[in-house]
Amino acid sequence: MKNFKNNSAMNTLLKTRPFGFDHLPNDWFSGFSSPEFKTNSVPAVNIAETPANYLVSLVAPGFSKENFKLKVTDKFLEISATVEQAEENADTKFTRKEFSVKAFTRSFNLPEGKVDIDAIEAAYENGILAISIPKKEAVKPAEKLIGVK
User: Fold this and answer.
1) What is the pLDDT of residue 101?
2) How far apart, in Å, do the first and last CA atoms of the chain sit?
3) What is the CA radius of gyration of the chain?
4) pLDDT at 88
5) pLDDT, position 74
């Protein structure tokens, strides 16, 4: 994984996809209709940097703010969400059911020692999760005048 250098902040990410089979055709899993089969997709993300913050915008429609789980360490930010669809009428028999459970996980490297993890804020509105990650102020070396005798 890349480290953050210069102005290219938070550009390294890990994606989670179903079973890691990114190279297979989209309909390869079409035979699975079990409610236990989870449909994972990776939401699109924009990452920006201002002088004071890193800003992460993640497109995730169909969730509520209670569905999200954000974990942060000095090195990583992990965003995950899971939502299960309500049970349908017992009289309804599906010939194909692809969205009984919707889940995703996205992980991002953070610039080590350069973010204030205690001040991170997140808000979810109109299908977009917005996360503001404040930068730590640079520590200036102590300065002391020495008198000459």
Assistant:
1) 79
2) 54
3) 21
4) 67
5) 81
Question: Is pTM, for the whole model, over 0.70?
Answer: no
Q: What's the rounded Cα separation, in Å, for the pair 40 and 34?
A: 14
In the numeric block, which tokens belong to residue 105?
């996980």
Instruction: Give the span between the Cα atoms of 135 and 50, in whole angstroms.
Output: 9
The answer to whether residues 62 and 83 touch, using CB atoms and an 8 Å cutoff, is: yes
| pLDDT < 70 positions in the chain | 1-40, 86-88
Q: What's the chain look like in SS3?
A: CCCCCCCCCCCCEEECCHHHCCCCCHHHHCCCCCCCCCEECCCCEEEEECCCEEEEEEECCCCCHHHEEEEECCCEEEEEEEEECCCCCCCCCCCCCCCCEEEEEEEEECCCCCECHHHCEEEEECCEEEEEEEECCCCCCCCCCCCCC
Q: For residue 117, give the nearest of 86, 74, 83 by alpha carbon.
A: 74
Report how far residue 131's alpha carbon sits from residue 54's, in angstroms, rounded to the nearest whole number: 8
